[in-house]
Design goal:
alpha/beta, 44% helix
Length: 319
């Protein structure tokens, strides 16, 4: 992980601009800004400064239904050392061609340019991640890698490569800010900031989803869940899953019912249908490809299961 001067010890104030796109998550904004606010409080002076900008300078509608005030359009980000794009859903609508053009033009003015959650997608579309290592939210890793082979896509929590940073979601945004604070002001301050949020300092190279970390789950259930999540496109029978974790099918079903209130087969099917719904909502993939990527033998098979689960046909999400 190659870093730049922003990550060197310094007593000089650091200024960041957050470009927040419509349909981003308030949790991602808070995860990016609150660690900096807390660091200022712990230090007793303004070591970190920030401004929130939006594509047109207007308040930004977030996924939770509230609007986030903006200090102005993207041009108002000029003067900050770092520009971070925060994006979530409906990229086809919010990441417009004029925005991509403006982002490509303004990027060289910053020492560091980054993206949170779907923000790396926006940077990729602007050509700002070409030749870099990068990450994105785990739901989008495969699509980003296939759509942009010029990017070295990895499943890390956050990645810093020269003057680019990509961050996979809300919790990793806090991880990155703690890394920034640690780099500039030391490990003790980073630990104090983390402790104030009852959090821990995590490395960017850690996996986005830590398997087997839930102490409430039987380790064999956790192992079965990990297998299901890793095989969305090629699901295996519940009996094979049970054998792989050293249980009989009946025993695994008993543990699943006790822990999750469902059966292994039903849970695996629900994972695939939830993945199909995300693809239908957030990608332009045709139904046949969605079916293939979620382990259904045909679009009609997916459609029947989808209607039974959600009460509507898959196509209704795109009308």
């Amino acid at each position: 992980m190659t870093e730049n001067a922003i990550f060197q010890p310094s007593d000089q104030p650091l200024s960041l601009a957050l470009l927040v796109l419509p349909q981003a998550s308030i949790l991602e904004v808070a995860s990016a800004l609150d660690p900096l606010r807390n660091a200022n409080r712990q230090l007793g002076h303004e070591a970190y400064r920030w401004r929130v900008v939006s594509p047109d300078g207007a308040p930004v509608p977030l996924t939770c239904g509230i609007e986030l005030p903006s200090s102005g359009p993207l041009s108002h980000a000029t003067g900050a050392e770092a520009l971070i794009v925060v994006a979530g859903y409906r990229l086809a609508e919010v990441a417009t061609r004029p925005l991509i053009r403006d982002l490509r033009r303004i990027a060289p003015r910053f020492q560091l340019v980054g993206g949170i959650d779907a923000g790396p997608w926006v940077l990729a579309r602007a050509g700002l991640l070409d030749g870099h290592r990068a990450t994105v939210h785990w739901e989008d890793l495969e699509d980003l890698a296939s759509s942009h082979p010029e990017i070295d896509v990895v499943p890390d929590r956050f990645v810093i490569d020269r003057n680019r940073v990509t961050i996979s979601g809300a919790a990793p945004a806090a991880d990155f800010m703690l890394h920034l604070i640690r780099s500039r002001h030391g490990a003790a301050l980073a630990r104090q900031v983390a402790a104030s949020f009852l959090a821990t300092v995590r490395k960017g190279s850690e996996p986005q989803i830590a398997q087997g970390q839930d102490p409430t789950l039987d380790p064999r259930v956790a192992a079965a869940l990990a297998r299901m999540e890793a095989q969305i496109d090629a699901p295996e029978p519940a009996s094979r899953t049970a054998r792989a974790v050293g249980l009989s099918p009946r025993r695994l079903e008993s543990l699943f019912r006790a822990a999750l209130g469902t059966t292994p087969a039903a849970h695996a099917l629900d994972l695939r249908l939830q993945a199909a719904r995300r693809m239908l909502t957030d990608t332009p993939h045709p139904l046949a490809e969605v079916a293939l990527r979620t382990g259904f033998s045909s679009p009609s098979t997916l459609s029947r299961a989808f209607r039974a689960r959600f009460g509507q046909p898959p196509g209704s999400l795109r009308r």
